[in-house]
Amino acid sequence: MNVPPTRDTRRGRCVWLGGVDPVRSRQLWTRSCVQSIADLLVVGRWDGRVTAFDRDTLDPHWTVAHPGHAVTMTPLTDRLIVGSRGEQGTIAAYDIDTGTQCWQYETATDIGVPTKDGLFALPHVTALESEPAASLTADRGRVYAAAQRYERDGEHRCWQSVVLAFDADGTVDWRYKTDASSNALSLGDRSLGSTRHRHDGGATHSSTHLAVGYNRCLGDHNVGLVVLDADSGTVNWNWDPGTTSGRRVGDVAVHGDRVAVASHGDRCGYLLGPGGEERWRVPLATETECDGETLYAYPNHVAVGDDHVAFVTGNTYAVGSRETASRHPNEHQLAVFDTDGTTRWSAEIRGYAHELATTASSVVVPCAQNVRVRDPMTHGVRQFDLETGAGTVLETDGIATAVALESATNTNSTAASDLNTIGAVEEPVEYHDGDHSYGEYALRTWVLE
């Protein structure tokens, strides 16, 4: 069932984030991030500034200059962990009340420094996951990070990547290194785990999985999914879509003993059980003949919960040339499935999604431009009811590239709606065949009724 959304023309509350070059017709890499923590919305900007705003008034509480481009963050008890794309690929922890830096780590120590000039040569912290102290014996919990660095010499391309586990004081507990691009990270919930792990002092706690998605596998590492033991960093099991191209996995999500995978290799979605047992596979944007071309689109994001799995697809490409004026019938689509693989509903999101966010009853997608349609009505934040697919578009003039959610109730609630506030980063866009720039670099918030 494909459910058309309603449109909400309110632009929400807004605070300007400074100047940034407009995006053009084709989407860019991640340039911003936003996180809801305590009563704050914290924004990481392309110039490296990280600012904590009051969620209700949008008054700034503090600002720090993070090394490099601040592109990912996660809360950890009373701290905020920020990762960058920059000369050193810096990860740093900041006190959430004051912005004071607590510790800093350079991932270039593990994956090397840039060998050439240019953005794509910079070490890049691609993902962060945090685990609260309540799950562990540590005072403030633990944070996990994935970072990668790309090199190209003529036709030779390679990646160096590392997954790191930090205690809250910045001590590295373990590291896992490969020669593939680590683009996704998902941590399981110990309360849903079944195994027990003996910690220092003889106490025990549930072990859990840390799933790592690898997209480009051009070296010795040749699997798209590695599931690690979160306590030790040892490999529990591997899985791969079994395709021959260098692209393997776009995103991963863990829930209990299940791992959902958005596969770039065959453009399908998977739900895996213990040890990588394939429970089901669904075609999402597989190769399709259209006007004499073979078209496909990559599934770029996935989320999984108690009773659902959600996938989001991206831009259309053509086999052989990649470039095409045509559109795959399932491009830019959000598809939600029951845990037995039955389709629950699907909806067009119309533009490129940089990420996907969920609560117990809602799914939210920030929508950027559609390179082939170039319609400003594509821009905005799309919110859907996970059960029915009923949706609302929160309009933005520019493209929406990052979102943060604040729940009105506990996220484990089964209430009809548990979402109170949405915060989103808007970025300006200027299409190549137009003379108008849409939007601004801003943080917008909507309080939902």
Write the layout of secondary structure elements.
Elements: E1 6-8, E2 13-16, E3 33-37, E4 40-44, E5 49-54, E6 60-65, E7 69-76, E8 79-85, E9 90-95, E10 101-106, H1 108-111, E11 124-131, E12 142-153, E13 156-167, E14 172-178, E15 182-187, E16 196-198, E17 204-206, E18 209-214, E19 225-229, E20 235-239, E21 249-255, E22 258-263, E23 268-272, E24 278-283, E25 288-290, E26 293-304, E27 309-318, E28 333-337, E29 343-348, E30 357-358, E31 362-367, E32 380-385, E33 391-395, E34 399-407, E35 419-427, E36 429-430, E37 437-438, E38 442-447
Parallel strand pairs: 1-33
Antiparallel strand pairs: 2-38, 3-4, 4-5, 5-6, 7-8, 8-9, 9-10, 11-12, 12-13, 13-14, 15-18, 16-17, 18-19, 19-20, 21-22, 22-23, 23-24, 25-26, 26-27, 27-28, 28-29, 30-31, 31-32, 32-33, 34-35, 35-38, 36-37
Question: Could you walk me through the main structural features you see in this protein, from its secondary elements to its overall organization?
Answer:
The chain is mainly β. The chain is built from 1 helix and 38 strands. The chain has one helix at residues 108-111; strands at residues 6-8, 13-16, 33-37, 40-44, 49-54, 60-65, 69-76, 79-85, 90-95, 101-106, 124-131, 142-153, 156-167, 172-178, 182-187, 196-198, 204-206, 209-214, 225-229, 235-239, 249-255, 258-263, 268-272, 278-283, 288-290, 293-304, 309-318, 333-337, 343-348, 357-358, 362-367, 380-385, 391-395, 399-407, 419-427, 429-430, 437-438, 442-447. The strands form 10 sheets. The protein has a 5-stranded mixed β-sheet with strand order 1-33-32-31-30, with no helix packed on it. A 5-stranded antiparallel β-sheet has the order 25-26-27-28-29, with no helix packed on it. A hairpin with a 5-residue loop joins strand 19 (225-229) and strand 20. The two termini are 26 Å apart.
